[in-house]
Amino acid sequence: MKYGSIPVLLLLALAGCSKSGPSAPSSAPGSSNWPGMEADLERSIKAEPNYYVFKTPADFDRDTKGLKWEDGSDLPPFADPNAKRGGTLNEWLPDFPNTLRTLGPDSNGGFRSLLLDYMALALIDYHPDLPGRCYPELAEAWAADPARKMVFFRLDPDARWSDGVPVTADDFVFTFYMQRSKIVNDPWWNDFMAKTFSGITVYDSHHFAISVVDLRPDYIYRAGNFFPYPKHFFKDFGPGWEQRYNWRVTPTAGAYTILPGDLKQQVSVTLTHVPHWWAENRKFMKGRFNPEKLREIVVHDPDKAFEEFVHGDIDIFSLNDTHLWYDRLSNTSPTVEDGFTVKATAYHQIPPPDFGLWINESKPILSNHDVRLGIQYATDFALACREYFRGDAVQQQTANDGYGWDINPQVHPRPFDPQKARAAFARAGFTVQGPDGILMNAQGQRLSFTITNNYRRYNDLLTILKQQAVMAGLEFNIDTPDSTTAFEICEQKRHEIAFVAFQRTVEMFPRYWEYADGENAYDVPYLPDGSPNPKRKPKPDTNNLTCIAIPALDRIIHAYDHTTTMEQLKPLAAQAEMMIWEDAGWVPGFKLLAYHVGYRPWIKWPSDFAPMQALDFEQYWTMWIDPDEQKADVAAHAAGRDLPKQILVYPEHKEP
Amino acid sequence: MTLSPQTRQQLRRFRSLRRGYWSFIALIAITIAALLAEWIAGHRALLVHYRGHWYVPVYGAIHPGRDFGLPYEYETDYRALQARFRSTHSGNWLVMPPVPYGPNEDCYLGQSYQPRPPSAAERHFLGTDQLNRDILARLLYGLRNCLVFALGYLVFVYAIAIALGCAMGYFGGTFDLFSQRLIEIWSLLPFLLVVIIVRASLPEGTHFGLGLLLAIVVVFGWTSLTYYVRTVTYREKARDYVAAAQVQGAGTARIIFRHILPNVLSLLVTFLPFTAAAAISSLTALDYLGFGLPPPMPSWGELLREGTANLDAPWIVASAFTALSVVLILITFVGEAIREAFDPKKFTFYR
Q1: What is the per-residue pLDDT for A8?
Q2: Of A396, A589, B19, B179, which is the most exposed, with the fewest CB atoms less than 10 Å away?
Q3: Residue-level pLDDT at A15
């Protein structure tokens, strides 16, 4: 053992070296001649006078003259205003966070939602019950000027960081500077900032405007759904800031912060409600962020976490796993029978992750349209939805369901039909059935493809698809490497068929360029005359996993990406959707219509459980704890008395 | 084949060790059952009599449904066909295996996927798993995979260990020194990590199956046995008979293969069962962790994992655990008996 530990120590030492070495990108100035954040910010502002524009308060009135101001006062709140504040909610984390930063390397972990995505406040956000409408968070009001591609904001004068410092326009300027700088070491943000914003104009500490690059139909949201960072806290920003800020708690304008000592390495993280939170009584904040403390316990094994939930150490548990919901925590299991666990099903309407089979059209046999068509008919997702998910899932209709409007009512998934599949395969030359029941062509090639599976938990689902495909003379080989490797294979376009999904956020309209544009399929997709380039190579690191490349579709996508209103956009989306369907490169997979949650009876919810477009039960933090009931329930449970059995369904947000 | 009196003595001794001997018989029976698995559990009929023709679908190419007048091209559903034959009284008949389910077959197609408890009436003697597959069939075919894997493992590991171990022990010196260091470094590589890396760096189109898995496990499994072989060779080399052979002018190969190797044999035979057990355990462990055989290949590790994740369906974990324990215990008993029977001290004159 003694000797065995030597190489481990060596490795650690090496890792340590690489970390303490210069980690800033080469373009960043070395730490020795780094002038400090303030000076560098000053320099950036001076270097780009057209990007960072400073004007006077008088200019604000002039610039916003005639614009219509909005403040969300015509929209209803979406939480329950009678919710009670206080109590502790115990949840679990699968991993201890790698960092408390929400920018830079390693900051994209699951814990980020508790620091940023579900917690921090932007200027405005989508109203989760009214698609396309925005409600104010840090902004008091906003006004859009499409002619100049600008959105003007009046900051809420009460907005404060959790350390008491007011939120000002300076913080926004700083955030622009930081997220655009190479020093932040976060290429995704660099790219996002460059593609989304074209400048910020400051009038005074609480009045400013954000300019956008494109006037898409949702440009107001894009300009305003922007999380600022507190400038005064990042005075040590500079090369190597990642290490310095790994474990510093960034002041937040949101409701929860981490107090000193509440970060127990590898054990738990506790978030505490900010005392006298500035937004406590704002219309869209009232009734949200109710528990006084959120205790996040680290449990590496989901099975163990589930046991801890049943035991009572964890108060709330996502039960979307079919097997958990129907078998392990069945309606007759003891903890449900005695009322200590409430089971709830809530419907929501969101763009689902695009689970499905992504057929790589750059591969020899799969480039044949009839083969792809055959695979569509040979894939029985319907059976999986019905029996594997026990009806909780349905097959996706289009490549872009859930955007609140039917993109193309004529597009439906092709049904499972071995006869039609065999007919399509026969057109592609696969006519002879081999001794194992798999079709072959005249060259003796078998109709056999490997599915690169990105999710070990869906091995069973793919086994069902494999078993059904044999009926059509098609063989699927399931390959499930670890998830990082699997995604690497897909991104390098080395897969034949990928089973994978991209997470999507709630937006007004889908994205086509990333998934379906020829530019993202091959290095040089077409010859000058528009025909496919015979020497083209699949382009790595893009989301076009089917390698679909059709010049006509590219033109539609280009036009789509330059539309400014939904009326212009919708017909183009319908056309794009139809072409993607005809191409048959993506076999529509399943989508869950509702989410299942288990929780203790003293946790209370609004009458619709959570808003319509909530991704999950905690995105908007609308639940609360009833302290009196908690006391009574805990006492009753300890005494062995049964509580009322509760199995609840919230169908309010079911799609019609 | 003539056996040396010593070997005959050893075999007699082995037979007299009752526990090991009967374990050996049981192991042979289990192996035969695994080899003839199709006759015990399978979705294919053993024999079909249809319109005066005889069919033996149990081996060979599939029979599409139309061979038996059914309207589909894929493999015949023999259980449905049997029911049809019985209901029509057409004089056609077929014989199914005692467990009429294949290892990868969804026995309740169109019904929900959930484990079903054992039922003799349904002929699911050990119940079904969460994909409605018969557990007994999966155990049986999984055992076959295990045995094939263990056999391949033994052949390759022994070949490497004998070649390298004898060479190290016989030549000694610098070669031995370098090989030892190589083995030390090699055995410190984190095995699981290497499995992941190898999978990630497979060239396009390589199918990750039993063969590749065997190669990886062998590449990491040969070191300890090589060390043992080296030690025994080292010891034997110092004996007088080797010196005598050298004096008589025997070549290196002759000395190693004719003189030393037979004396190392007892060690090799003794390690045989334990090495086989190690092979089965590592395959099961890899499957359990999800780095083993690709789904839906039947494997014990996968069944164990499914069982531990479905403790509300205890028949899964109980079947897998019992099967694994029984086989490993039998192998260990056989191993103990072999060790005792081949113990050189037993027959030495210097007692």
Answers
A1: 32
A2: B19
A3: 35
Encode pLDDT of A542-551 as tens digits.
Answer: 999 999 999 9
Chain A residues 391-410 with a CB less than 8 Å from chain B: none
Q: Is A535 exposed, middle or buried (0-12, 13-18, 19+ CB in 10 A)?
A: exposed
Q: B270 CB contacts (<8 Å, ≥6 apart)?
A: B335, B338, B339, B342
Determine whether the interchain pair B208/A479 forms a contact, defined as Cβ–Cβ distance below 8 Å.
Answer: yes
Tokens found for residue A77: 């709140």
Cβ-based contacts of B104 with chain A (< 8 Å): 463, 467
CA pair distance A467, B314, nearest whole angstrom: 26
Of A388, A436, A485, the CB nearest to B196: A485
pLDDT of residue A124: 97
Distance from CA of B111 to the nearest CA of A (A): 6
Q: Which residues of A233-255 are buried (b: 16+ CB within 10 A; e: fewer)?
A: bbeebbbbbbeebbeebbbbbbb
What is residue B258's predicted lDDT score, i.e. its pLDDT? 87
pLDDT level of residue A386 (50, 70, 90 thresholds): very high
pLDDT of residue B347: 56
**Backbone dihedral angles phi then psi of residue B86, each to the nearest 5 degrees:** -65, -40
Pairing relationship of beta strands A624-625 and A603-604 according to DSSP bridges: antiparallel
Q: Looking at this protein, which amino acid is placed at residue B162? A: I
Q: What are phi and psi of B189, to 5 degrees?
A: -65, 135
B185/A contact by beta carbon, under 8 A: no
If we measure between CA atoms, which residue out of B272, B25, B283, B289 comes closest to residue B146? Answer: B283
Is A466 an interface residue toward B (CB < 8 Å)?
A: yes
Considering the entire predicted model, what is its pTM? 0.86
Q: Do B296 and A422 touch (CB under 8 A)?
A: no
Average the pLDDT over B204-226 and give the result. Answer: 85
In this complex, is the C-beta atom of A446 within 8 Å of any C-beta atom belonging to chain B? no
Contacts of A488 in chain B (CB under 8 A): 200
Q: Do B73 and A418 touch (CB under 8 A)?
A: yes
- pLDDT for A280-336, tens place per residue? 999 999 999 999 999 999 998 888 999 999 999 999 999 998 889 998 899 999 999
User: CA A321: distance to chain centroid?
Assistant: 19
Chain B residues inside the 8 Å CB shell of A422: 73
Do the chains contact at B113 and A387, CB–CB below 8 Å?
Answer: yes
DSSP β-ladder status, A432-433 and A439-440: antiparallel
Contact B295 A480 (CB under 8 A): yes
**pLDDT at position A108:** 82
